[in-house]
């Protein structure tokens, strides 16, 4: 046996162990602040102000007061009615903002990939290129379109949508900004489906709708789920669109808008932020864990086909 | 694995159960029937909604809602208020996008002017003008006006022109509270002669080190020259290097850098403003110029009252031609809609009825002279209101907040810190600040 051959298994073990240690260190370092936040969310305001969260190991003392106040409002005037109405708003905002772009994008991706028409490549390229439009740049023009419509001189090109301040006024921008990426991702996936399947279906007399409904859609579930997670997290975490196109009132604002102001006028309420943060990440975590097998599959989908 | 998972689930279940168990929601007690007499003048508001956008957050936001609850239940109007700490950034976007709120509570005159420039701000209606003429000093009305046209009535306000001292120490040493600048300097001389430190000082404040010194200069500028020159100074029509401002800086130097009165002036640059006044209750130093919020810097249990451990007196004027100069801040009710219900809510917010009901609830100061001083529970609030609501008072906004950020939140701080800490000359300081003024 050569020296190299002898050497290499040991080296591999060494490097694996080393890698394991590094991964563990990074994982712990990455998780400790979140864990500290989690522990803090169960501590009283005085404890948070006076001692670090690690003191719970020596002096355990927990309270649900932060969660109670964050969820249901303080007994005093400190928090209004709590974050539950905002949590519901977040769900109402997020679910259509995920479903609408997926519905549009799967149809568009299928037609761009499998229905050949003049300029379809250019159209796909154009949609793909739209991703470079920065969201921040289009806020005011889009808001003007919603509230005043578009005019050339005195001729109305597009009437005012009248949806600013309503949920539809948040769904629409989210849909608009999601579509380029959604169409691009789903197009890449759908166009890589085996051509034989489609041709066989057409031979059997299936039209495009049937092919889409019975072949393409079931096969695209991993890609759709992967994009759904992306979009869900993006919409859930969004503050800018919601604050610009709607308002921060209890009827419409998402939980992020409330979280941003939870700390209070004088920055004295930040014990609520810890509990508020965990309330707000509970639902994204549930979504992620229930869809995560698709997530990995969806990410790999393009690469291994 | 499954056992571990099960125990985890059990733990989670227990946690959720105990969470629910501890949630004893208290139903707010129904308040007694509201007295609707003060709102007899408001009509046709039933079923209407008015939206307000503000930078004020909880808990103050909740107090505001409580203050107009009776108005809502008596008139039938619904006031929807939204507070955001992104107010300054969001308001221009919403206004330009056509999604403006009915009313905005703008805390900076500069932002008010910028909003008026968009053409979307509605001039104050007659009801608001009547209330403001009746209850507010002309300098407050001037701050709510842009280019001579009146738009926005003041709402809340706060006071900077205070000097913190210890009534018990003053009594022990036989000192009396000065009412003129000369009396104050004479008192400081007396303290120095008795071997005491007359003025406490500290301008340390982390990244904002230097800001208390900018307040000192602002107090002196308005005291020496009045509102007109003060405002010209903010807009840089009068430069820092102008002989007037240089003279004011020399007055500050003779006050807060006077070794006879403050001990080591250089120590002021390294002392944090929070620590600066801690010697007041024990007599370590006697007087500190700081804003009304400074009361909360003293340790818990400190008696803040006219006969207690600490209290404040009004920083006296210098030039008799400038009557009752006061520096502070406040917010202005700006309308983006001329609907009748909006105008009535706007007028209500400028009324003494609203201001008094707000003062009755909590810590808050109004410049509305219709609020009886007896309504203020906190003695510092009452003292502040006494000067803010004085119809003769010359009220000015914090100049460094109104100047461009490169100066007011940058160069002015660092140069003043060098002025105090390194003994940099006034001539060099004003030159450096003028050079940092952004070109138009």
Main attributes of the structure:
heterodimer, A: 305 residues, mainly alpha, MetI-like fold, 2 domains, two-stranded antiparallel sheet, 13 helices, disordered N terminus, B: alpha/beta, D-Maltodextrin-Binding Protein, domain 2, three-stranded antiparallel sheet, 11 strands, 46% helix
Overview of the structural elements:
The complex is a heterodimer of chains A (305) and B (440). With 305 residues, chain A is mostly helical. In chain A, 70% of the residues lie in helices and 2% in strands. Chain A has helices at residues 3-40, 45-50, 65-72, 84-114, 120-129, 139-148, 168-191, 195-203, 208-219, 221-237, 240-245, 255-262, 270-304; strands spanning 150-152, 155-158. Chain A is globular, with a radius of gyration of 25 Å. Chain B is an alpha/beta fold and 440 residues long. Chain B is globular and about 70 Å long. Chain B contains 21 helices and eleven strands. Chain B folds into two domains: 42-159 and 328-391, D-Maltodextrin-Binding Protein, domain 2 (3-Layer(aba) Sandwich), CATH 3.40.190; 162-326 and 398-436, D-Maltodextrin-Binding Protein, domain 2 (3-Layer(aba) Sandwich), CATH 3.40.190.10. In chain B, helix 6 packs parallel to helix 16 and helix 10 (211-225) crosses helix 11. Classes of the chains: A mainly alpha (305), B alpha/beta (440). Chains A and B meet through helix 3, helix 6, helix 11 and helix 12 of A and helix 1, helix 2, strand 2 and helix 4 of B.
Summarize the helices and strands and which ones pair or pack.
The complex is a heterodimer of chains A (305) and B (440).
Chain A: H1 3-40, H2 45-50, H3 65-72, H4 84-114, H5 120-129, H6 139-148, E1 150-152, E2 155-158, H7 168-191, H8 195-203, H9 208-219, H10 221-237, H11 240-245, H12 255-262, H13 270-304
Antiparallel strand pairs in A: 1-2
Helix pairs in contact in A: 3-13, 4-7, 4-10, 4-12, 5-7, 7-10, 10-13, 12-13
Chain B: H1 2-22, E1 49-54, H2 60-67, H3 69-75, E2 78-83, H4 87-96, E3 103-106, H5 109-117, H6 126-135, H7 138-143, E4 145-146, E5 149-150, E6 153-159, E7 162-165, H8 167-173, H9 181-193, H10 211-225, H11 227-234, H12 243-256, H13 259-262, H14 265-270, H15 273-276, E8 288-289, E9 311-314, E10 325-335, H16 340-349, H17 352-361, H18 379-388, E11 394-397, H19 399-402, H20 405-421, H21 426-436
Parallel strand pairs in B: 1-2, 1-3, 10-11
Antiparallel strand pairs in B: 3-10, 4-5, 6-10, 7-8, 7-9
Helix pairs in contact in B: 2-17, 6-16, 10-11, 10-12, 20-21
């Amino acid at each position: 046996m050569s020296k190299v051959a002898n050497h290499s298994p040991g080296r591999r073990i060494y490097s694996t162990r080393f890698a394991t240690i590094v991964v563990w260190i990074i994982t712990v370092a990455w998780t400790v602040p979140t864990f500290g936040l989690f522990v803090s969310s169960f501590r009283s305001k005085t404890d948070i102000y006076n001692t670090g969260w690690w003191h719970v190991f020596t002096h355990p003392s927990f309270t649900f007061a932060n969660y109670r106040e964050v969820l249901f409002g303080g007994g005093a005037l400190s928090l209004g009615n709590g974050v539950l109405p905002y949590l519901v708003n977040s769900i109402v905002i997020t679910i259509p903002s995920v479903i609408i772009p997926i519905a549009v994008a799967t149809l568009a991706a299928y037609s761009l990939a499998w229905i050949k028409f003049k300029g379809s490549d250019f159209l796909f390229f154009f949609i793909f290129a739209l991703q470079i439009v920065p969201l921040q740049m289009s806020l005011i023009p889009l808001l003007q379109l919603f509230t005043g419509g578009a005019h050339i001189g005195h001729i109305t090109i597009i009437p005012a949508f009248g949806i600013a301040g309503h949920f539809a006024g948040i769904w629409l921008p989210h849909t608009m900004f999601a579509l380029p990426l959604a169409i691009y991702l789903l197009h890449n996936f759908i166009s890589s489906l085996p051509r034989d399947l489609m041709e066989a279906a057409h031979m059997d007399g299936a039209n495009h709708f049937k092919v889409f409904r019975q072949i393409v859609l079931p096969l695209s579930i991993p890609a759709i789920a992967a994009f759904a997670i992306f979009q869900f997290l993006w919409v859930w975490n969004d503050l800018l669109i919601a604050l610009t196109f709607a308002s921060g009132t209890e009827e419409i604002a998402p939980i992020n808008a409330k979280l941003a102001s939870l700390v209070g006028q004088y920055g004295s309420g930040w014990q609520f932020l810890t509990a508020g943060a965990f309330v707000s990440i509970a639902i994204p975590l549930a979504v992620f864990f229930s869809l995560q097998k698709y997530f990995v599959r969806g990410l790999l989908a393009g690469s291994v086909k | 694995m499954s056992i571990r998972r099960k125990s985890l689930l059990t733990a989670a279940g227990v946690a959720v159960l105990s969470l629910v168990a501890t949630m004893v929601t208290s139903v707010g007690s129904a308040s007694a029937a509201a007295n609707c007499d003060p709102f007899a003048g408001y009509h046709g508001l039933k079923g209407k909604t008015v939206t307000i956008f503000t930078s004020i957050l909880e808990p103050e936001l909740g107090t505001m809602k409580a203050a107009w609850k009776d108005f809502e239940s008596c008139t039938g109007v619904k006031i929807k208020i939204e507070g955001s700490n992104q107010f300054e950034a969001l308001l221009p976007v919403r206004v330009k996008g056509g999604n403006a709120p009915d009313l905005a509570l703008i805390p900076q005159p500069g932002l008010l002017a910028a909003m008026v420039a968009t053409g979307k701000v509605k001039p104050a209606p007659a009801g608001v003008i009547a209330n403001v003429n009746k209850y507010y000093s002309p300098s407050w009305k001037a701050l709510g006006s842009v280019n001579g046209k009146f738009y926005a009535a003041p709402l809340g306000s706060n006071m900077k022109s205070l000097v913190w001292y210890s009534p018990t120490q003053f009594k022990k040493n036989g000192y009396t509270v000065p009412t003129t600048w000369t009396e104050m300097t004479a008192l400081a001389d007396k303290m120095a002669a008795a071997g005491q430190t007359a003025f406490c000082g500290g301008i340390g404040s982390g990244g904002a080190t230097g800001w208390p010194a900018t307040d000192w200069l602002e107090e002196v500028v308005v005291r020496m020259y009045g509102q007109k020159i003060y405002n010209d100074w903010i807009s840089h029509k009068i430069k820092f290097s102008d002989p007037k401002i240089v003279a004011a800086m020399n007055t500050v130097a003779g006050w807060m850098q006077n070794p006879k009165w403050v001990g080591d002036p250089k120590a002021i640059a390294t002392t944090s403003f929070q620590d600066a006044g801690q010697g007041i209750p024990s007599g370590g130093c006697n007087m500190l110029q700081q804003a009304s919020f400074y009361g909360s810097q003293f340790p818990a249990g400190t008696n803040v009252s006219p006969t207690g451990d600490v209290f404040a007196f009004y920083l006296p004027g210098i030039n008799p031609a400038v009557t009752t100069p006061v520096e502070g801040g406040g917010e202005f009710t700006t309308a983006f809609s001329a609907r009748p219900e909006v105008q009535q809510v706007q007028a209500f917010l400028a009324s003494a009825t609203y201001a008094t009901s707000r003062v009755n609830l909590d810590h808050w100061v109004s410049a509305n002279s219709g609020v009886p001083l007896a309504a203020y529970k906190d003695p510092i609030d009452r003292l502040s209101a006494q000067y803010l609501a004085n119809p003769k008072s010359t009220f000015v906004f914090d100049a460094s907040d109104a100047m461009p950020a490169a100066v007011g939140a940058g160069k002015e701080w660092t140069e003043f810190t060098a002025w105090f800490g390194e003994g940099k000359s006034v001539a060099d300081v004003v030159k450096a600040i003028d050079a940092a003024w952004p070109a138009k």
